[in-house]
Description:
The structure is a single chain. This protein has about 450 residues and is an alpha/beta fold. It folds into 2 domains: about 1-200, NAD(P)-binding Rossmann-like Domain (Rossmann fold, 3-Layer(aba) Sandwich), CATH 3.40.50; about 235-440, Rossmann fold, CATH 3.40.50.720. About 45% of the residues lie in helices and about 15% in strands. It has 18 helices and 14 strands. A 6-stranded parallel sheet has the order 3-2-1-4-5-6, with helices on both faces. A 6-stranded parallel sheet has the order 11-10-9-12-13-14. Strands 7-8 form a two-stranded parallel sheet. The chain starts with a strand and ends in an 18-residue tail after the last strand. Uridine-5'-diphosphate-glucuronic acid binds near residues 155 and 260.
Amino acid sequence: xxxxxxxxxxxxxxxxxxxxxxxxxxxxxxxxxxxxxxxxxxxxxxxxxxxxxxxxxxxxxxxxxxxxxxxxxxxxxxxxxxxxxxxxxxxxxxxxxxxxxxxxxxxxxxxxxxxxxxxxxxxxxxxxxxxxxxxxxxxxxxxxxxxxxxxxxxxxxxxxxxxxxxxxxxxxxxxxxxxxxxxxxxxxxxxxxxxxxxxxxxxxxxxxxxxxxxxxxxxxxxxxxxxxxxxxxxxxxxxxxxxxxxxxxxxxxxxxxxxxxxxxxxxxxxxxxxxxxxxxxxxxxxxxxxxxxxxxxxxxxxxxxxxxxxxxxxxxxxxxxxxxxxxxxxxxxxxxxxxxxxxxxxxxxxxxxxxxxxxxxxxxxxxxxxxxxxxxxxxxxxxxxxxxxxxxxxxxxxxxxxxxxxxxxxxxxxxxxxxxxxxxxxxxxxxxxxxxxxxxxxxxxxxx
Length: 448
Ligand code: UGA
């Protein structure tokens, strides 16, 4: 099949490379000429494990190509995916759909023969209707259908999520479009990935509902963690005790410094706005968003408390800056709020992240000193804080760290270590919601 991805950002590139790997002929389009030039030379603008190899091998095999010209490939395509950005609109938090609608207009002019136009970007309910209206108005003669096909990829595990999805959501009631989408996803069909054929509006809402629910789950366990700290209970055991109930499930119950990233913060805000606009406010999601916002800054207070009540003039080593491991993405990362709050309290910040430092430099105040590894980062520090649970922070040499620090204080905001292990090394150790440690609680498993 001939597929065009409009937008070669995170979603467009991962989906395009994976579709090409299924054997489809894929063209990734982007307005930024510099991005296309780089991609043609095999340079990948984002860090995502496995993506560079996948792009390279499929480009070499001639199944994946890049261009800034939309019209040519669209005129040939069976399916055109809109995978452009939908950032939060300044002021009201509603998703900014201007890129989606601009793409729809350009696609309209280029259509030739029956084409399925698919919104892959996360878009509010009713966007598919508007895309259809725009195209129909510009090209009353064109034969096309607009389908919603939201993505459920996690950064850092996107290729795995694409190739082994829990489900594929196809939002259209048109049988001809359903048949094209079935062909697009046929290789996964054979892996027996469930395909959900539902209405377009339902598909659009499903994506927001899924992200908002996951954000709620995280926020719930974070509140339980706070309670655990007060009552002397262990949140990891509470999560396990809850999660073994199949109706609840154990995933997304890792307490931490609050969720971040390009999706949960933005999508919860957009859902809140939609629900308000339709007169059915989502009070749960409103609360989740505000509790999570406050939590990020509150994490700095935890560090201040561990330092004896003040960080003024103290050096704090921040280990991990990205919103989660295996990505270089800094968008809405808890580290942004934590570092800023610590600086407001007079702290001097040293930081290390394996992939995120370039992006961090653009988003954090210039006074941060960036280091080459964890050991350089803790040199002369009065306290260290694990903000992101990168694998390389899971087996640190604490004798070496203690020797390098002025005072051995560790705030472990991801519960990577066991308290007795670190306290046994002579550290003051604070974690998240583990008032009492069960003897058998090991190092936290990866975020599921
Ligand atoms: C999320 C969803 O998981 C994907 O299904 C969805 O496709 C994607 O958003 C999107 O809408 O594009 P992502 O933001 O990449 O994916 O990352 P997650 O693994 O979901 O983590 C989000 C945040 O929640 C991170 O800050 C992470 O540290 C935090 N988190 C996650 C926790 O604090 N605890 C957990 O148990 C799980």
